[in-house]
Amino acid sequence: MVPSRVTPSVQRLLDRLSHTPVVVYDASWTLVLANAPYDALMGETSTWRGLERNAVWRNVGRLPSRVVHTPREQAEHEARLVADLRLTASRYPADSPRFAELWDARPASDRHVAAKDHRPPGGRADHPRLRHAVRRPG
């Protein structure tokens, strides 16, 4: 079973970052926690239920988002998410026999999986109250 509990050490870190947008996902890319600054920047997440909380499903299903991607960036982002999910499935093989059967029906990708970084490429995010897109430093 993929753990989704926020440990006390992670919670202490989040408490220190209370003015910084932070989101925590479990290994299957299901949203565990988003702080108020994250919700202010990216949109309210507390009403999301079930699959709505899964970043892979949200991205591949092209649900509305404030993240701005070119078509190429979106395709690359989706491929990274799926490759990461494939690695997660290999670490938690007993989660679902039916899922494992379906998963094994498609060959694994040779792609290198980047570190889990949910920042939008180029650091852009559309925000309804800001005139220009928000950019991350660097």
Explain this structure to me?
37% of the residues lie in helices and 5% in strands. The chain has helices spanning 8-16, 36-42, 55-60, 71-91, 97-104; strands spanning 23-25, 31-34. It has 5 helices and 2 strands, in the order H-E-E-H-H-H-H. The chain has one domain. By secondary structure, it is mainly alpha-helical. Strands 1-2 form a two-stranded antiparallel ribbon.
Summarize the structure.
With 138 residues, the protein is mainly alpha-helical.
Summarize the topology.
Blueprint lengths: L7 H9 L6 E3 L5 E4 L1 H7 L12 H6 L10 H21 L5 H8 L34
Antiparallel strand pairs: 1-2
Q: What is the helix fraction of residues, given as a range?
A: 25-40%
Strand content: 5-15%
The helix tally amounts to 5
Low-confidence stretches: 110-117, 131-138
Descriptive tags:
single chain; mainly alpha; disordered C terminus; 5 helices; 138 residues
